[in-house]
Design brief:
TIM Barrel, 3-stranded parallel beta sheet, alpha/beta, about 140 residues, single chain
Length: about 140
């Protein structure tokens, strides 16, 4: 039985047609393993797709560079090993009817120097970030 509820109607966004207007926004469930979206991470998004959402956004902030240390179990998008894991996640969610999107970021001042490889925290300015308490090094050309 078709619903007249606008929330449940398909939505066309340029070349992409979403099956409804329900989505899961980017957040970090900390299901990554060694910075990769392995089975637990994939199955988390797949279950949402099976449940009927139109779009699942992966990664609260998938980090794009090794000098952006993970702060909350982030995915390591700068590593080539992530590609097959993301491909499988996307393929499974597509098969279940959902689109997939990823949030990519350089955490800048929103990380700590003493995580991962202990690189200095880099940011557009040296202003301290209160939540993570880092004094970042200003980015240079």
């Amino acid at each position: 039985m078709a619903s007249n509820d606008p929330l449940l109607q398909p939505y066309k966004l340029k070349h992409l047609t979403l099956r409804n207007r329900i989505m899961s926004t980017a957040h970090e469930p900390s299901y990554s393993e060694d910075g990769l979206p392995k089975d637990t991470y994939r199955l988390y998004h797949l279950e949402k797709a099976k449940g009927g959402i139109a779009l699942t956004m992966t990664a609260g902030s998938a980090i794009v560079s090794r000098d952006s240390a993970p702060a909350f179990g982030n995915l390591h998008a700068y590593r080539d090993e992530i590609v097959p894991w993301l491909r499988r996640l996307a393929d499974d969610c597509h098969e279940a009817g959902s689109a997939v999107m990823i949030q990519l970021t350089h955490l800048g001042r929103r990380t700590n120097w003493n995580k991962a490889d202990w690189f200095p925290v880099l940011a557009p300015s040296p202003v301290r970030e209160p939540a993570h308490r880092a004094f970042p090094k200003e980015i240079e050309d």
